[in-house]
Amino acid sequence: MHAGDGSDERAVVAATAETPRAALVPDDTRVAAFFDVDNTIIRGASSFHLAVGLYRRGFFRNFDLVRFAVQQARYRVFGEDREQIDELRTRALDIMRGRSVAEVTAIAEDVYDEVLSLRIYPGTRALLDAHLAEGHAVWLVTATPVEIGELIARRLGASGALGTVAEHENGFYTGRLVGDLLHGEAKASAVRALALREGYDLRACHAYGDSTNDVPILSTVGHPCAINPDGRLRRHAAEVGWPVREFRSRRRQARRGVNAASLAGLAWAVAVVVRAVSRSIRRRVGAG
């Protein structure tokens, strides 16, 4: 999706039209809160954990999981990088071509129960619940596929999700996107289009994000807040006077040097691959 392209904005909003909405208090129908997902609601990249779930069900090769794990480690240490995200998007779309939407959605449900539900920041969850208690609409806005965003939104009781839309025909992914990746300025464009459709007063709305790439969406609302910010967003927030909320443990706040948690995640993913290869070798030897 490209900022300023009205047709793309409408496409993203249309993709969320059937998403369940929270009940709103009549006096607050024009207020919404917009939450980024990765490192704002969920520790790490939700797409990586979905990739692990797909790998375990034979969707792609051992090498692909290691590649995703390396990118997850880089993301955790250095934050988002557009070139990195584009590379992952291209590979992911190629892997998903011809796969059933229903099958992937079912796997995503399992991944949420097994992994993602355990990685939600309690502090962010409390903020989200507070908005719902106030009668505000709550939307997740993420570069993650919209199906994953909607799943997380539904499990958290949120109103819906805006996300990257992967094209599918007759219930199967084509390997192409509808519009572009929902990232950076594209997030802000989608929020503005949604606000126009739903009648939200953006001056009264709230937004939460962790990365400098969330500055456009944070700048769109009257009440921005940086959550678990990367270094650049933290500096920007200090310059413009945005509040900052930190829900990571002290150890996880460190961004310098090698991040032990990221290396542990990478080692875990590699261990999954090694175990799978070992089992495959043992089966072949036994069959021989």
From TrEMBL:
Keywords: Hydrolase, Membrane, Transmembrane, Transmembrane helix. Belongs to the HAD-like hydrolase superfamily. SerB family. The lineage of its organism: Bacteria, Bacillati, Actinomycetota, Actinomycetes, Micrococcales. The chain crosses the membrane at residues 257-277. PANTHER family: PHOSPHOSERINE PHOSPHATASE, PHOSPHOSERINE PHOSPHATASE SERB1. It comes from the Bacteria. This is HAD-IB family hydrolase. CDD domains: HAD_PGPPase. The keyword Transmembrane helix applies. Pfam families: HAD. Signal peptide: none annotated. One of its GO terms (molecular function) is hydrolase activity. It comes from Cellulomonas avistercoris.
